[in-house]
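Field reference: sequence -> structure
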Amino acid sequence: METNNAADVAQELERLRARVRADRRDTSMPMLVFGGLVTFFAAAGLAAGRLPASGRHVTLLLFWPVFTIVALQVLWRISRRRALREGVGESRPSYRTMLAGYLAGLLLVTVVFTPVLFAGVFVPMVWPAAVLTAIALWQRNRALGVLAVGVGVAGVLETYYVVVHRGVPQDWLWLQSVVYAVVGLGLLSAGLAVRHRERAAS
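Structure field:
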């Protein structure tokens, strides 16, 4: 009897946690923000392809470190505005804390292990996948974690293709942008579907 009661309490807590997560839009907001960012990266990569090799590499090198800061700040502002307007509270930890942790990590990587920054040039999808994974772990958000793994797998497959073919011919750089656009639009579509379910659960 006590075991059944404990199981019922655990299920109720899980339902309550899911309801709070839906109220905060903890799953859909990162999907939508990073989906938009990946789609923008596809366009930026296409534009950078017209630049000399040095200009293209600098553009791609700076893109993810800089725009991840922008994305986390956008998530923090949206979360804070929603918390103030509807009284649902911010995610724990808050996106402000996540942003501070990201900045500290970025500074450490820049000073101690700069080659990590080149992931944004050679394996760009791994960068947003890592950030989404970190958010999912902080929030204990399984759905977001599964999606982050999917983005990471796409990044690894791209890297495998590039390594096997010893780079991507200049004439085929547009194909990478198409792949990134598909990933970004997929994230946006998933985010919109999750947002619909979150509204229904609220």
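Note: The first helix runs from residue 2 to 24.
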